[in-house]
Amino acid sequence: MSESSVKTIYxxxxxxxxxxxxxxxxxxxxxxxxxxxxxxxNFKRCSDKNEQALYLHGEDLELRxxxxxxxxxxxxxxxxxxxxxTIPYVPAEFVLTCETWIKPQDNKRLEGLYKSSSMFxxxxxxxxxxxxxxxxxxxxxxxxxxxxxxxxxxxxxxLLSNGNPIESGDLSDGRHFVTWEDPFPKPCYxxxxxxxxxxxxxxxxxxxxxxxxxxxxxxxxxxxxKCDYALDSLKRSMKWDExxxxxxxDLDIFMIVAVDDFNMGAMENKGLNIFNxxxxxxxxxxxxxxxxxxxxxxxxxxxxxxxxxxRVTCRDWFQLSLKEGFTVFRDAEFSADMNSRVVKxxxxxxxxRTAQFAEDAGPMSHPVRPASYMEISNxxxxxxxxxGAELVRMLHxxxxxxxxxxxxxxxxxxHDGQAVTTEDFVIAMSEVSGRDFSQFQNWYDQGGTPEVKxxxxxxxxxxQYSLTFTQSCPIGVADSGEKQxxxxxxxxxxxxxxxxxxxxxxxxxxxxxxxxxVDETETxxxxxxxxxxxxxxxxxxxxxxxxxxxxSDEQLLFLMAHDSDGFNRWEAGQTLSLRxxxxxxQQYQNKETxxxxxxxxxxxxxxxxxxxxxxxxxxxxxxxPAESYLIELSEEADVDAxxxxxxFVRAELSTALRGELEALYYANAxxxxxxxxxxxxxxxxxxxxxxxxLSLLSASPNKQxxxxxxxxxxxxxxxxxxxxxxxxxxxxxxxxxAHAALSEFYDKWHEDAQVLEQWFSVQSASxxxxxxxxxxxxxxLPDFELSNPNKVRSVIGAFCQQNLVSFHHESGDAYAxxxxxxxxxxxxxxxxxxxxxxxxxxxxxxxxxxxxxxxAQLKRIHGKDNLSKDVREVVxxxxx
Length: 880
Ligand SMILES: [Zn+2]
Fold this sequence. Notes:
Helices cover 41% and strands 21% of the residues. It is built from 27 helices and 31 strands. The site of zinc ion (ZN) has 4 residues, from helix 3.
């Protein structure tokens, strides 16, 4: 594809479709060398349009026959180009019948209909359906689908599509068919088809109105013992959505299918969700607690889309956050209710600040609702998902629970069966509350992370305390022109000398108050304040901003001990840790002796000894800011200094607190996973804390932890403990212990794809085991397959994103290796190739030597022949 043929698509150019589709009938005939797709589309010109021409998307299709009503079309009757077909003259109302031939067996892009192992499956979001047949492949064309699937009965006894099955039977030559009908109008990106020889785990859910819904999870027969948790999570999600949002499930069947080769995590196709195996399959032997929590969250997320995404969908792909931001918010609240609200918030904010803030500051920065794109697959980003969810959370904060629920009810009622915009969502929230959210719209239309500076003053005579807030937003490389002020909800409280929240005069005596910053600078004054308080700002991280206030170390320690907001207690600890780390990084750069302040060790000692707090919170408090976050906070990131300083702190803490950490380890050692409570949040927190203690212990030069880890590795009864011990051994620097554990683990688990992914990533993410040669050895193993996205992520992805000190080695060899694989993958699977680009796009963060090396690789990728538009868009935006 030449540069000039890649179009940029703009939101401002949006036009409603000229033709509506009244119904669609599809027949798939699946064979070992390909598939025929017969489509019968009933078109009708929209009453307010007068277009004579019909445009249909279609890519890599072999057209075998096409007719309008009973009239066969010849090649003069239409024009084909690389992206679709134009039929210059069509009547106002007509039936288009079309037959195409496709080759799912050769489809390694994993978009449209493809084969994963022996199973046929589909992925149509965003624009995969056009690889199945000629069709108006845009989300605002919604219609009812009837789908008939024909295939060999022995090889593919299970034939699934959206909706309910209405007919099935045998055909000649050992073949059979099933016909499905989905009564709910949907865009084609929600279409799904599965054909395979699959095990089915069944369950039943009774909805709030008393209807019984059949729940079915389809997996490979070898994974029959890995479905329980997903099924339970699904039932919990269905119940929660009824209770919290009043949303009842609509079809008679809800199905989930696990697929090994999948570009994303999971897909919310109507009634037939398709999941990446790693996001659905679990048992205690093979899945870590983190995997369990991820499964619960993703099952919920995809289920919640049935309303936020499917019943009400997006008008165009610029509105992607309409469904994703809202649904991420919904799944986060669900996880908070199922587990711990504070812990969930800490995890989400940590991720947002490390990864999304970095995206916001880089060349791919874009508003939550982008104004343009070349390839929409590149916009399934943290900004659209995670920041989009923060926008919905801010509306929730501004409105409160009851009004927010009224707004969501209005939104669902008003737009059921429609394809709408982010404005429609905000308007519903505005209408129920009578509030003006026109300034809030800036969050959807302006990229970048706003900064809020806060200063305080206290007048003892007048007993007045004032806070002054100033907002600004940096102009990024992707921005054009000035930015308007944001509408920023800042939840805050004031804490008195005794550690208690003060009643706030401005908020009728309440102790927490949402201050709405709308101007560039604003001051608020609190009356009747007897002595200077400590402010607790941006409680629960009430807005996705970088807030700064000049706290003293004493104030941070005070907040850690007393803040009534759990998130801000953790935040104070993080700020302290960051200060210490940043000082050490400077000492390292100045070649000085590194010194960890005694006081910092005492803070950690008191956390380790704390018996009052939730174990999961203690765990979060003991976690140092990640290397990737320290990079994000640096003007010019010194990866080596960051890595060594952080390891130095871990080693010092380990040595100083050895006794306490060992006691913590043993106090939490005996939690049996094979009981009715073995997988609940308390049990998971206990395992997490024990393994956190083990990990910290292993940072000291004393090798006692290696013995402990070996012991845990050989006696572990679950994957959480086994994986944690393996990770400690791999990172211990004791090569023989590492290799022994790795080979034992491999022998036991190499036939289990999900566990093998963990075996790969624990090595590629480890600075102590993997230099570039180590990485090449992993890639050379027969278990590694470049065509399988999970393997690519667990080996190349984990190395480039987690093993930062090896990836950024000053030779630049790792940059070259990454470029080599991006180039290889570009021909195979452009979506995955494009996502691997991310580390190279961040070149501006590093010193001039590394910048030159990274830019050279970006140019090398840019020079590849036939570069996909996925990779082309990212590379062209990243080059200066
Ligand atoms: Zn989603």
